[in-house]
Amino acid sequence: ACKGVAYVLHQAAIRSVPKSMDRPLPSNEANVTGTLNLLVAARDAKVQRFVYASSSSAYGACKVFPQREDMRPQPMSPYAVSKLAAEHYAIVWAKSFGLETVSLRYFNVFGPRQDPESLYSAVIPKFMEQAYLGVPLDVHWDGKQSRDFTYVTNVVRANILAATGPKSASGEVFNVANSETYSLLDVIHVIEGITGRRLARSHHPIRAGDIRKTWADNLKIRRLLGYKPVRGFEEGLRDTWDYFVNDYFPKKHAGRRES
Known about the structure:
With 259 residues, the chain is of the alpha/beta class. The chain has a single domain, classed as Rossmann fold (3-Layer(aba) Sandwich). It has helices at residues 17-22, 24-44, 78-97, 123-133, 152-164, 184-195, 219-225, 233-252, and strands at 7-10, 49-55, 100-106, 109-110, 137-140, 146-147, 150-151, 172-176, 182-183, 201-204. The chain is globular, with a radius of gyration of 19 Å.
């Protein structure tokens, strides 16, 4: 599978916390066993470096902020456990087999081409679709839960740096984030500013596995890999909205307009 490959950027996963709560075995099979299979293939093919897409969910119930890579993980879902377990496999492969590995803990990635209908979709594309259609925004919990939302361009940049960075990065885990936290109500407020109208909300109970807050310390990745976010939160939201209203929603919802 990895013959002739210099760099592996492993992004594949069943990436849904709710789905992992309902069906933990398939989540483990894809996220842990799948990663292990790819690590074996990368080792056997003598791949130069293996970059693994992990998740901020590994921090779980952590109540100390900002969250640093040396903090004890407290995963709260099978998904989080699976991502953390695969991180450890990557570290073992670096130490025991000489395969250079880097694990990146993504913090709430968003941007163009996220599918609002996907079971794994983040809240931002769902909010934007509901705003476009003029229907109430589905808000789970009280909306005050906050996330370190990270625009996709920043994540792409982090992957490139992780693949091409110094040997000292091998076997390490890095947060990939803006190191800022915004509540869901903040997200709604920015979307209201973009659309120029007040958006109705429909509140729902908390979902199993949900956490109150994510907020990353990104000093380690800045120091060792030279990472710096190239797109901020509000800029990213505007870029994402522009993509959806110009390229995606008009095709999907032909004949229906914003109200």
